[in-house]
Please model this.
Amino acid sequence: MDYNNNAGIDLHIHSTASDGTFSPSEILALARDFNLAAIAITDHDTINGSKEALGIGIPPSLKFLTGVEISASLPPSFPNSGSLHILGYSINIDAPLLNKTLGMLQEARKNRNPRIVDRLNSFGIDLSMNELLSEVGDAQLGRPHIARLMVKKGYVESIKEAFDKYLGKGKPAYVDKYRVDCFRAIEVILDAGGIPVIAHPFLLNIGNIEDIEELVITLKARGLKGIEVYYPEHSQDNIAKLEDIANRYELLMTGGTDFHGSLKPEIKMGSGKGNFFVPYILYERLMESIYTSKNRYL
Ligand code: AMP
Ligand code: FE
Ligand code: FE
Ligand code: ZN
Model:
């Protein structure tokens, strides 16, 4: 591949290691089919997707960043705003602190899923952990898998309906999830030699751009290095606002589709809802920043 200005990248991809439906090997093949110049596999609270891709071997025509999307809590000054997702790029997959922290999140998910199932059972929805585990195998089981099984068993028409009626925050089968403190999430990613980036800021329950800016300032003071500016659900107007914040605070800009395969069928890898595009230059800037930050410690 010729890394010209036309090449696209996708730095937000879920694999079967979390709630995506394509395996790391299928994702590598898709990246080639779609002529993507660089990708990152960013599974929820696990680096197994990235690890598997590295084990398979990355084709020479593709740049690959290891990644993770950590479920974190917002700082105390942002009450009731729900979950904050922190992306980590180019992480050392053997970093002990990162692995320990992800282990805690994985354990918490394991405790949460049976509680969601219990609640669903109490509403007459007949499904069991055994059924779920046999559907999902080694993946990190989450609400999308539960939603998919509810569709399969005919309790709802769609994954969206499962979230809207039962699984979404504030709905009857919702069970809150343990999250890592956001400052800790940043620290853990930095400790693993990675680049911490705030994911899809406009998906937070924070109403306005002033509060998002405040959050970015707070997180930058603790080591945040970038903002996921380009995201299929960000409007052009919101993208412009995030570009402005990234420029003013000298933060990296990243972008990706949040590809989940058939669990988010409207989103295609690399191109989102069709016309989404993230330019290769953003990958280059990210890499430059990785080299300079590593050099500081050489
Ligand atoms: P969990 O990790 O179990 O808390 O589930 C969160 C995941 O569920 C997100 O990463 C999305 O993939 C998916 N999700 C969250 N809300 C919705 C929704 N309203 N409709 C469909 N999928 C959703
Ligand atoms: Fe997800
Ligand atoms: Fe996310
Ligand atoms: Zn994601």
In short: Residues 96-122 form the longest helix (27 residues). The pocket of zinc ion (ligand 4) is lined by residues 12, 14, 69, 258 (CB under 6 Å). The radius of gyration is 19 Å. The first strand starts at residue 8 and ends at 13.
